[in-house]
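Two entries, shown back to back:
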Amino acid sequence: MKKFEDWLFKPETDFLGELVRFPFSVASAIYYLVIKFRFFLYWGKILKTHQALIPVISIGNLTLGGTGKTPFAIWLTKALLSSGIKPAISIRGYKSQSEKGLLCLDSSGWDKISVERVGDEAYLLAEKLKGIPILVGRDRVRASLKAKDLGAEVLILDDGFQYLRLKKDLEIVLIDAVRSIFKERIFPRGRLREPVSGLKRAELVIFTKAQEQKQQLIFELGKINPNLKIFGMRYRVVNDEQFLGKKIFAFAGIGDPNYFFQTIKCAKIESVGERAFSDHHYYKPEELKEMEKTAQELGAELLLTTEKDEARIKNFKSALPILTLKIEPDFFGQESSLLELIIKKLKEQRKC
């Protein structure tokens, strides 16, 4: 599936390639019209937008998956908490049993909840942010009311940029610095959830997977929205010493598996093989057994995956150890400035 997506989303193709992809281009045009009509309904106040009782920070993106929303949400939650602001998180729980309702994961027994019930991202958030209310369900308006009842002083929307039913006090958009959004196309022909012009609604952009400042991208974004504040974010591996001197086989079912594999190489971890799956992939026992066999044949001493994938393989018994690569966001020394800006913008809207 991942190879098909890579083929389909390829931005530049020859005439024959475009001809083969033509049905998806037509679907993209229809999807674009649906997006525009939906925005018109909200801008025209035909559909109602709700004001939450507490400030709302949205963390979102313009493209499908793979920009690092969950690691950033974890960092922001901890940073706000350390500043004396009590946060709660609202997450859809994509493909989970709780998506259509509202489930609160807090300090009271969240670890008894299965990943099938809440989704891999919510499960990871609950593991990393013990004691912080994690509200699982696609109705973010209902989640905002629950967050207020639980005593939260700010609500963080994980993947909230395209959610229009709830007014946001701060729109943060994460952009993959490796892939240029200006070369992407509208889904399903490309990865874009909406046109790049949607950044006019944003106030803060975080370039993720950044190794340096992308001056040309910053210039192009400035033409769309001159008021954007822009920061860079990269990932720091915090447990690389655990794998040094060992041969690993890597696998991942996340938005951008290739970046995970590249991170392993940059950390000087010896990889003898790798396998990519689609985002949120639920592993079958036979798939894991097949990978285990392949890894053993290649001389791997262990299987290495992401923390998000770990939640989906907890019940699998493997002859090889299955470990996770732990990462933390690094903002090039600008963490304090970024947090100060976020809190300042919230206070400009209303008091926390």
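entry 2 starts here
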Amino acid sequence: MTFTRRGRIFLFLFVGFSSLTGLASAQQATGGSASVPSIPANVSAAQPVPNATATAQDVASDPAKLDAANSDQATAARLGVGDLIEVNVYNVPELASKVRVGSSGDVYLPLVDYVHLEGLTQEEAQSLIEKRLADGGFVRNPHVTILVDEAASQGVTVIGEVTKPGIYPDGADHRLYEVISEAGGFSPAASRKIAILRRNRPDPIRVDLPRNLADDVSGNVEILPGDTITVPRAPIIYVVGDVGRPSGLLVDNGTLTVLQALALAGGTNRTAKLGGARIIRKGPSGMTEVKVEIKKMLEAKSPDVTLQADDILFIPLSGGRVVAGRTFEAAMSMATMVGIYSVHP
């Protein structure tokens, strides 16, 4: 394999320009002179080729290939944004490059300019670069090889309530429980309602897991490279004020009523002012306070009230004066200091 005359001219100008840029930078940084690296005698280059950006259609015009590109299995083996690759041209070391696929899906390579590689397999990308080198008259019968150093786009991303959120490589042949384990397991506040975002799928895959994963393996679904696993925080109901054990109660499944929440928080103290109990709730218009008749609930004269996620049930101290409009501040201050407990209604 040899350079064409045009290819030598192009590469000569490319390497020469890079060398002069490096020389200028070295002189500016040191205040002195720098030597220009020697250029091989058989290497040269010229002006960039106009309209140099290519797409996957250059190498994937076959309908069968396009169908395969849309499948999950094909997606698993394709280059994507963030991948770090090494591009080598056989017998032409001057064209070796180590580049990362940019956010646009392109990489910049000597002589051929920008090439769109996102969505291509390694073989398709190699063929595309070979075609660009040959069509541009730069290299006769080029043979290109691509090595993937970092397959960032093929990793599995785990975010939310896990011990070690992040990107985990080698997602092929993995299942949900295995990936969660790699991420250090669930945090104490984790919900078991998992969402999996998958490429080429508009809606997330939703999986409801048991508290003890060993109890049911039906949710141990297959995870594909490029998936994003989201572990949300479980809904919390806060019970604060003059109660036995001010708490944040994790309620991942089912619901809690006011009396149930009070019981889980150790009940009210003798000094509690039951008539001043409030539910602090966040709504579309902001925070609201709803009075609750706990004494009447205990006497079965008033229906028990179902609490919502992130509600704060505040029980003031008897004899204490609660200033109008300040209940919210007092309840929020107490809620930040409580312990979090998991409950199973």
